[in-house]
Every structure is written in C-alpha cells, then in structure tokens.
Write a structure and sequence with these properties.
Two copies of one chain form a homodimer. By secondary structure, chain A is an alpha+beta fold. The first copy, chain A, contains 14 helices and 23 strands. Chain A has two domains: about 325 residues, Bira Bifunctional Protein, Domain 2 (BirA Bifunctional Protein, domain 2), CATH 3.30.930; about 90 residues, 3-Layer(aba) Sandwich (Rossmann fold). In chain A, helix 2 runs antiparallel to helix 6 and helix 2 crosses helix 10. Chains A, B: Its EC number is 6.1.1.15.
C-alpha cells in the first residue's frame, strides 16, 4: 500500500478524552473514530489489525474442532424470557421495539439463541460433541463507556458454545477451548495467563479468565513467576487426545486476579523470589455451566439408552475488538505502538527519506514491488513529508520493520533496516533486506 | 471437513413458509435458520458461502483502489438530522433509545456517517480521490419481510463511498466501481447486467442497477442479447487509465428493468431476433449524487486555488447476503443447488458409498487427505447413511464436484467423478481425480 493512497489521519495532539494509553494511541494513529459514546468506526489502519486478530482467533477455533456460523445481532425478547434472563439482565441490555411493536434486543451474548438452534435440529447423543462459534458485534449498554475499545458498547466478540452428553464430555470440550485460548493469545505475541474466575451472570461453577499482563491493566494480578514460562502447546497438539496434563500444568501454578486472590495461599505456596504482583487485562473467559440453559429451554438429546437428557453446555468468549487495545497496552513505548508481527497492520514500512530524488525513488519502488510480489504486507511512505515526520509516523503506528532509504546510504549501496520492538538498526544492501524480510 | 463432525441439518420436508426456490433450498440445505421475521442465523454451510462472496467483493473493491474500514451498526439520530433524512426515512428505519434516552438508529446505509468521518480529517483536494468502503450488517424494517435473505431485515451489505473534487473526477470514481462490479459478479459465475436506474432516496441523477438474470427474478427485464456476450474486463484492467470505452460499450446496448423500460425505443433499436425479455434480481446499485450530502453536512476541501468547495460524492452498494439467494435463483435444478465453483461452500464432496468397508474407507481417507493437503475445500461424507441419501444430500447442497467411491469401481481401480452443473460422470483412477481437481 502506498501511503499517498491510504487513509491514515494521524493526530498531532493528544486527544483530551482518552484516559489510557491504548485509547490515546488508537486515536493518534488514526485507527478509529468515536461515532457515539462507546461506539467506534474502525478506520483502515485499525481495521487491518482487527481483521488479523479475528483471523488468528478463527484459525485456532477451527483447529480445535469448533464450527463457525453467524448469528444475527438482533434477537427476540421472548427467547430471553425462556431462560429468565430478559428481566435479569438489567439496563445493560439494549431493548428495541420494531415497527410492529415486537420486542427485540441487541444481543450482548448468545447462550439462548444457540440453544434454540441446537434444540431445533439435534436429537441424539450421536451428533455430539458439538461446538459452534461465531464472531459478531455485540452491544452492552455500559452506564459509563470509556477507555476506548477496552470498554465500548458495540464490540466484536468471538463466542463459542459447546454441547455434550454429560459432565465428563463437557469438561473435555472445556479443555479443548482452554488449550485453543493458550495458543490464540500466544500467537498474538501476548502472555495471557488463565486464572480461575467467578462465573457471574453466565452461571455455572467452573470458569477461567485469560489475563494479559500489562502494567496499565485494569486489575491487580498475583502469580508465581513459573506461570510466565510454561510452554504453550504447539500446532500439533492433539485435540482428540487427553489434554488434562496441559490443563493441570497451567492450573497448578498460583495465578489469581484480585477478585479471587488468596493472600494466605499466595504467601504459603509461592517462594518470595517467584512472587509476581502486576496488573492485567481480561481478554477471554471460558465457562462450564452444565444444564443451566438446557434445563430452562428444554434442549434434550436421546442418550445411548434412548432416554432424553438435557445437554451439558459451556461458553467461551474472546474480546476481539478489546484485544486491539489490550495488545497496545502490553506493547508500546513513548513513541507509539510496537505491534507484534502477527497482528501488525503492515509488517514492513519503507520510508523514502528524499521523495522525488531519482535514486531513492527508484530504490523504494523496487523494494516495494519485490516485497509486495513476495506477499509481504508493506506500507510505502511515498509522501512528501520530511524525514523526521516519517520516522515519527512509522514509530507511532508501530510497524515492526522499517526500511529507511536515504541518499547517503544508497551512495554506498545500503539502506537501513530498523526493528521497532528494540530500536536496533542495521545497514544492509536492498537484496539482504529482501532476503531477511521475505524468507 | 468430515461430515460426521460438521453441522448440516438437512430438512426432508419442503418448509411451508418459503415462497421462492432460494428460500426453500437454503432452509432445506441447512444453510440458515430464521430467528425472527427477516432475521436469520447463518448455519455453517450458509456461512461458508456468505464468506466466499464477501471475499470476492472485497478483493475487487481493493483492486479498484477502494480502502476498507468498518463503521458500527448503530448511529446517532442527530447525524441523520444533519442531512434531513432522519424524518424522511420513515418506518423502515429502526429507531432506538439507549439507557440515557439518547436517540440511536440501526444503520440502513452510511452516507451520513462516512461524510462525517471524511469532513473530520480531509481538508485538501490533494487527499483525493478517496473511496472508502465497509462490509457490515444493516437493518431495514420492511413492512413485510419475505423471500428469505432476498428481502430480509438484517442483511449484509458492502457499501463504498467516493469523494472527489469535481464532477469529472467523481465520474471517474463512478466508472471504477462500475468496472469493479462487472468483475465482481462475473467471478461469482453470474451474468449481471448494468441497467440505468432511478436514484430513489439516495438522491442524485446518475445510477445503475446490476441485475442478475434469473427466470424467478423479482422484476421483468428487457435487453438486447448482445449485452449478454460483452467481455468482462480482466484482472489486468488499469483502474488508473481511461475506463470510458468499457462503460460506453456496456451502456450503449439496450438493457432496462420494467421501471424504466421504453417499449418504443426497445422496438426501434433492437432487432427482433435479439430481443430478450426475461426476469432479473438486483444485486448491486451505484449512485453519483454530486454535492447532496457535502452541501448539507459541510464536507468541504480546499481546491488548488485555496478556495473551499463541497466534494462530489457517490455511493456503491452490493447486497452480500442477498447474493446468496440470487445465485441460487440463477443456479439450481429440481435436485437442489448448483453452486458456481467460486462461491461453493465446498468445491469437492467425497461420498463413501459403503462406509465401514475396508477398501472404500481406505480410498476415501487417502483422497480426503491428499485433496486437503493440496488446499482443496473438501467435504467427506463419512456418515453411515445409505448411498441414495448421500447422493441426494450432495446434490441438494450443490457441491460442484462429487467423487463417488464404491466397492465395484474400486475393484477395477476406479472412482466416479460427477460434475453437478451438467450431471456428467467419468470413471477415473483416484490419481487422475486428484490431478483433475488439485491442479
């Protein structure tokens, strides 16, 4: 993409309304624009990041055997009356009447709708296990939306729902999502630690939150430093096999948010030199809730003995739009965002430090063409801004690799390759840069 | 994908509520489920088709130089008061009040919001031309939703918006979208004919509808048969070049829907043997509306002489979810859907005609693995249904290529390759099938 043809409205001033760094940087980097309280438009740069995160989530759900579908944003109020949550949900639910005065709502989550779909078609234990997910916009009418996409009202969530014949099978489904989440967040360059959690309005008795460690996080977190170095399962993890050793490994080391922190146990179990106290951001939560919805909504299947039993369910959420903010909270410095490569809007930026000069133009065009031809996501800053402004913009929007092309270096056959994560720089020939980035 | 692990709730009975063939077939093939009047959940099979259509639309928008972003589903009522459309829009607009009694609406289209985004950032003609698009769920509260996804209430639309300094430049933007639409629909295996159209509530004085020819279409269509054989621009079309010859070629041959049909001209200009009268379905519409929104909403940029002028705009819609129905209306027979390959949920189905027999199981597993390894989208029917039911299901859901693996053929080293579009069959070795489908 040529920057001269892109839409990247970078702000020079720090926006006053932004209280936290991710909100500030997303506005400054031209990633999004507020359209109403807690409701945002994703501008092209932000949209690219959102899509990359969504795709990683999708790939890991698919790998774990979940099936993607797509439920609508609007739901019938009557569906939520079946579970009893229509009245229970309170003012965070956006309630709507259509032209015929039928009561609708903008879905904040989909346990009821997916249970309705399930019970319409599935009649036998032979169709289980089944895990259905979608990635769809949700709405929660927060009393006081703030912190940008970290606590918005219209937000993008991946929510998966598992259906099993009994608790043992349901726990295997739960474990599959547990492992999928470990992989999902690790692929985004995040340390996300599973922590035992309260179940809240979803219900049930087993739940884990996945918490990204970030000093600017919303809640205090206590853990044993060993949990930071546990191995994340590889691509070859066998989701049909026994996952309990992985779950045991991850849940036996102390890690808790302040809500459930047990100071005595922390002192007793964790040696002083391994005590970590930091802050964290919730980016996912998984629940096993048993027969809560299947009892209320009569989602029954015939078991091997022919007798109908209510299915055992779980639900599994990832805050897709929230992750954009969470990654920035975990990956930034004073100059701007430092995107992990897997979610960067562009992997490489080419900065033409003397736009209009024959040699730099030719070298940049050649690199741009060669990198693009090899499938590298590259942003070519071909604007007539001065070099300093180009450096600042590339750092602000956080492109992992920056190729600085100036007349002095070119005279010696070199360009400069800068790595955003640590600021390291190397002088290399264009051919070597290409080999490095397109391998 | 193994069918035993997929979620494909095929209906044996014809659903009574479905009045048209695409609605009937989408329900029977387990592609979707109605959740409220005109509001559907996309089940896994339907979701796969929706995504393939969306991706073709995206690729052709990108190729034409449009930039993708994503606006929210909910909008502020005040934004629509600026253009005067809040009151004008009538009962089809879904109006919502949030917990603080602020007036919102579920966007039926986005001219106002994109103009608000544009005017916030763009100040100079130097940033033009600019074309921004998104693919997002919309809502129109139809008085009587029907015909499944063909006239739903919650529907997926691609809408692009162009911004130019004057009418001449705006017409160039219009022409780029015109050509992109020709390519988009052709890639989906559709004959979509651009026809001059009324502008309706969007406004302006120049508009074309893109009409898919289908005998079951919603409106009568009159055209010269020459328009059916015009060449569609290739991948290498130069969007920076002069597109007027292509536009002239496509607009000089008679083609009109009944709304604007001129019977006298049709008789005068079209020789009898070239007169075509059939039916059609609108799948896209493009508009040039000049300064309608920029005047009302003060979207001004400084021209080369430093004087602020209102920008000239256009908007360009594709009915992404409607296309799923439109393609079925154009591509089906009594046995079910006949998907064009580019949008098929799976390109290939393997039917194991004797599940559990050592030889057929082994041959199917090998084909399944080899096709999957080569990146072919394949559905392996590994269920214990009888052969007849497998044939019927594969035809109903419309998989373009079906590999029938039975014990008799295998004894001679052959499987049968069936093509859904014309029913043709060939006996081939598994190696030849692989070479044919994975090339």
């Amino acid at each position: 993409m040529r920057l001269s043809r892109f839409f990247l409205p970078i702000l020079k001033e720090n926006p006053k309304e932004a209280e936290i760094v991710s909100h500030r940087l997303m506005l400054r980097a031209g990633m999004m624009r507020q359209e109403a309280a807690g409701i945002y438009a994703w501008l092209p740069l932000g949209f690219r990041v959102l899509k990359k995160i969504e795709q990683i989530v999708r790939e890991e759900q698919d790998r774990a055997g979940a099936l993607e579908l797509l439920m609508p944003t609007l739901q019938l109020a009557d569906l939520w009356r079946e579970s009893g949550r229509y009245d229970a949900y309170g003012p965070e639910m956006l309630r709507i009447a259509d032209r015929h005065k039928r009561e609708l709502l903008y879905g904040p989550t989909n346990e009821e709708m997916i249970t309705e779909i399930f019970r319409a078609y599935v009649k036998s234990y032979k169709s289980l296990p089944l895990n259905l997910y979608h990635i769809q916009w949700k709405f929660r009418d927060e009393q006081r939306p703030r912190f940008g996409v970290m606590r918005g009202r219209e937000f993008l969530m991946k929510d998966a729902y598992s259906f099993d014949i009994d608790e043992a099978a349901a726990r295997r489904s739960y474990n599959r999502m547990f492992v999928a989440y470990l992989r999902t967040f690790a692929r985004m360059g995040l340390k996300a630690i599973p922590m035992r959690a309260e179940t809240g309005p979803i219900g049930g008795d087993l739940s884990h939150e996945f918490i990204v460690l970030a000093e600017t996080g919303e809640s205090a977190v206590y853990c044993d430093s060993d949990v930071l170095n546990l191995p994340v399962p590889g691509e070859d993890v066998d989701y049909d096999g026994d996952l309990t050793p992985i779950i045991k490994q991850w849940t036996s080391v102390y890690a808790a948010t302040e809500d459930v922190h047990d100071a005595d146990r922390f002192d007793r179990e964790v040696p002083a030199e391994k005590k970590v106290q930091t802050r964290g951001i919730e980016v996912g939560q998984i629940f096993y809730f048993g027969t809560k919805y299947s009892d209320a909504m009569k989602a029954m299947v015939a078991g091997p003995d022919g007798v109908d039993v209510p299915i055992h369910g779980g639900s599994y959420g990832v805050g897709v739009s929230r992750l954009v903010g969470a990654i920035i909270e975990a990956c930034h410095d004073d100059a701007g965002i430092k995107w992990p490569e897997a979610v960067a809007p562009f992997r490489v930026a080419i900065l033409n430090l003397k736009q209009g000069a024959e040699d730099t133009d030719a070298a940049c065009e050649k690199l741009y063409r060669e990198l693009s031809d090899r499938g590298v996501d590259v942003l070519y800053d071909d604007t007539d801004q001065r070099a300093g402004a180009k450096f600042a913009a590339a750092d602000l929007i956080g492109i992992p690799w920056q190729i600085l092309v100036g007349p002095k270096g070119l005279a010696e056959g070199k360009v400069e390759l800068k790595r955003r994560s640590d600021g390291s720089r190397e002088n290399l020939s264009p051919a070597d840069v290409l080999a490095r980035l397109a391998s």
